[in-house]
Write a structure and sequence with these properties.
about 425 residues, alpha+beta, Aspartate Aminotransferase, domain 2, Aspartate Aminotransferase, domain 1, 2 domains, 5-stranded mixed sheet, 4-stranded antiparallel sheet, 18 helices, 15 strands, globular, binds pyridoxal-5'-phosphate
C-alpha cells in the first residue's frame, strides 16, 4: 500500500527521469506532514508560543549544560545542541551550493538542486541506494572500488553490484566502462557510480577522458535509456597533475539530457579535512526538471533521512558554516593540500625509479591513495608480511590489489614503506 503522500511525490515525478529510476523503497518513501512539518509551520506562525518540538526551551532558546558550553564557547545553544532541519542548516546548504559553483564554474548558470545535508558521504551513498537500487536495479562501479559500495548495494539493498575493469594496458579503461553501461542500458536504465579522485587507485580522468565519459552517457541517454550517474567527489580538488579534469563530472552531467539524472555526493570530510564531522551533501541535477519536481525529489531524500537518523548533527554544521566565512580557510586548505602533494611526488619519484617483476602501480595522479596490481602475488599475503615482518600497515582490497594511503605517511616514512613493499614482493614472488 502506497501512502497518499508518497503517491503525491510519485505523481509529481511521473514521467521524469528520477521518477522512472526510483527503487521499491524510493517509491514508498514520503515526508510526513507530522512533527517536523508542523513544527516548521509553528516556527513561522506560532508567535504566542511554540509547543511543538521535543527540546527544552527557555526564553526561546534550547538550554545547554555549562559543561558542554565551556568547550565550544563561541557557539550559541542553537548552533550547538539545537536540532538541525531534516535537510540541514539552510545557510550551510546555500553556502555549499555557492562553493560548488565556485569550484565548478561551468555550473554558474545551470539549474540544479540545493544540496541536502547528510551525516557523511557514506550516508549519502546509502540514501541514494535506498532511493534508486533494489533487486531489479543494479549498480555499476569500477573494479577495484571502495569496499563500502558493494556492502551498501548488495548487502543492504540486495542489488547486483556490476563492475568494469577500471584499467586496461596501464590506462583508464573507458571502453570497458562503455560496454558495461551499454549492456545495462538494454534493461532500460543504468545506475553508475563514478568516484574521482578514486579510492583505491588514486586515479582521476584527464580532461579528454572526462569528455569521453560525458559523451558515452549522452549517447546512451539519446538512445532512450535512463541514466543515473552518482558522482562520488569525496576527494575533490586533490589533483597533482596538470592534465586532470578540474571540474566535477556533475558540472557536465546535470543538464546533459532529459534522460540523465546526476547526483553529486561531496562534503567537508576530505575537502575540509574534517573526517569525523559526519557531514556530507547530496545535490541533484536533471535537465528540464521543474522546481516542483526538484522539490519532490528532495522530499524523497528527506524521507530517507527522517526515517533513519532524523537529521545530521548540528555542531559540525555550525562549525563548517563558521569556518567558511573565515577569510583564511582557503589559504589553510591550500597548505594542507601541499602536504599531500609533496607525499604524492615522493611516491611518484619512488615508483618511477624502481622496477619490480612482481608488482605494478596502477595509474594514479590524485587523491589520498595509490594501489599496486600485485599480479600473481596474493595481495593479502603481501599485506600480512609487510605488517608482521616490517610493522607496515597497508590494505589488501582484493587478491591482486594492495592499497597504500600515502595521505597518512609522513614524508620521511615514504621511502622506507615503498622499499619494504618492493622487497617483500620480491621475496614472495621468487
Ligand atoms: C570514495 C569515498 N567515498 C566516500 C567516503 C566516505 O566519506 P564519509 O567519511 O564522509 O562517509 C570515502 C571515505 O573513505 C571514500 O573513500
Amino acid at each position: 500500500m502506497i501512502n497518499p503522500l508518497a503517491q503525491e511525490l510519485n505523481d509529481a515525478l511521473k514521467g521524469t527521469t528520477p521518477g522512472e529510476l526510483l527503487s521499491d523503497v524510493g517509491t514508498r518513501l514520503y515526508f510526513p506532514k507530522g512533527i517536523i512539518a508542523q513544527s516548521a509551520e509553528a516556527k513561522k506562525l506560532g508567535k504566542t508560543a511554540n509547543g511543538t518540538i521535543g527540546t527544552t526551551v527557555v526564553e526561546g532558546k534550547p538550554i545547554m549544560l555549562p559543561s558542554i558550553k565551556k568547550y565550544v564557547p563561541d557557539l550559541t545553544s542553537s548552533e550547538l545542541v539545537g536540532y538541525a532541519p531534516t535537510a540541514g542548516n539552510p545557510d550551510l546548504r546555500a553556502m555549499w551550493k555557492e562553493s560548488i559553483i565556485r569550484k565548478n564554474p561551468l555550473l554558474k548558470d545551470k539549474k540544479f538542486s540545493l544540496p541536502v545535508v547528510v551525516p557523511g558521504l557514506t550516508a549519502g551513498i546509502s540514501y541514494l541506494a535506498d532511493l534508486f537500487l533494489d533487486e531489479t536495479k543494479p549498480l555499476v562501479a569500477a573494479d577495484p572500488s571502495w569496499d563500502n559500495y558493494v556492502l551498501i548495494a548488495e548487502a543492504r539493498r540486495n542489488a547486483k553490484f556490476v563492475q568494469f575493469k577500471m584499467f586496461k594496458d596501464g590506462k583508464f579503461n573507458i571502453e570497458g566502462l562503455k560496454e558495461t553501461m551499454q549492456k545495462q542500458a538494454e534493461s532500460g536504465s543504468v545506475r553508475i557510480l563514478l568516484n574521482f579522485p578514486q579510492n583505491p587507485s588514486g586515479y582521476s580522468p584527464t580532461s579528454g577522458e572526462a569528455k569521453q565519459l560525458v559523451s558515452i552517457v549522452k549517447e546512451i541517454a539519446e538512445k532512450g535509456a535512463k541514466v543515473m550517474v552518482w558522482c562520488d567527489d569525496a576527494y575533490f580538488g586533490l589533483n597533482y597533475e596538470d592534465n586532470i579534469e578540474k571540474q566535477s563530472l556533475f558540472a557536465y552531467l546535470c543538464d546533459l539530457h532529459e534522460n540523465v539524472l546526476a547526483a553529486k555526493i561531496d562534503g567537508p570530510t576530505k575537502e575540509d579535512f574534517a573526517w569525523g564531522f559526519r557531514t556530507g551533501f547530496i545535490t541533484f541535477g536533471c535537465k528540464g526538471l521543474s522546481d516542483a519536481q526538484y522539490e519532490a525529489l528532495v522530499k524523497k531524500l528527506m524521507a530517507a533521512i527522517r526515517s533513519s537518523v532524523s537529521c545530521a548533527a548540528t555542531p559540525s554544521q555550525s562549525l563548517i558554516l563558521k569556518a567558511a566565512s573565515d577569510g583564511k580557510l582557503e589559504e589553510e586548505k591550500a597548505e594542507f593540500r601541499k602536504i599531500l602533494e609533496r607525499r604524492y611526488k615522493l611516491v611518484r619519484d619512488f615508483v618511477s625509479t624502481h622496477e619490480s617483476k612482481f608488482i605494478k602501480p596502477l595509474p594514479f595522479n590524485s587523491g589520498y591513495f595509490m594501489s599496486f596490481d600485485t599480479m600473481s602475488i596474493d595481495a593479502e599475503k603481501l599485506r600480512q608480511k609487510l605488517l608482521n615482518d616490517r610493522g607496515i600497515g597497508t590494505i589488501s582490497i582484493d587478491v591482486k590489489t594492495l592499497r597504500v594511503a600515502f595521505s597518512s605517511l609522513d614524508e620521511e616514512k615514504i621511502n622506507i614503506v615503498y622499499q619494504a613493499i618492493y622487497d617483500i614482493a620480491d621475496e614472495l614472488g621468487k
